[in-house]
Amino acid sequence: MAETEIFGQVKRAYEFATGAKTTGKLLNRLFQKSFQVGKQVRSSTAITRGSVSVGSVAVDLAEQIFGDLNGCKIMILGAGETSEKTAKAFRSRGAEQIFVSNRSYDKAVALAEAMGGRAIRFDDWEQEFRDLDILVSSTAAPHAVVTRAKIEPILRMRRDRPLFIIDLAIPRDVEPTVPELEAVYVYDLDSFACHCGSDC
Prior knowledge:
By secondary structure, this protein is of the alpha/beta class. The chain is built from seven helices and six strands. It has helices at residues 3-19, 25-44, 54-66, 81-92, 105-114, 148-155, 193-196; strands spanning 73-77, 97-102, 118-121, 134-137, 163-167, 184-188. A six-stranded parallel sheet has the order 3-2-1-4-5-6, covered by helices on one side. 33% of the residues are buried.
């Protein structure tokens, strides 16, 4: 499922882990061998030919839920490649209210301007939850950034208005207990397995 994007995310996560000196010799050998095998599979098979972007599948899901995306307020957490592809896919399907938040505010501004949207400082993104319809999270954070403690108080102001969260990050951006909240629906990469792959 979107092997190229997943491969890149795993590679970046490994580089982050080695930079933080949290891997040992065995884990290093395992990852290096995995990257070698992944590269060999991609070059000797048609696995990436005609592959579907995870971002476009996320937008397909949003369209199934909301229909016309024109009136939806969408926030993108992260400004990397996956976030950019997802934002472009939303824009191409008619979404006009796109907000981008990223730890590097300059990157958020660049992506938001390219999408005709608005950048939000990373420390302030949860303040936009009152009218938000869809949150797409794809950061490179090593821990959950969308936590129950952070969004539960804000949800009370929404008066049970549904919030759809699409978590495209590895490791996950959304805390496991968030789907337990009332009127919150979380979809992650596992949810997209049958849409992105050919083995369903």
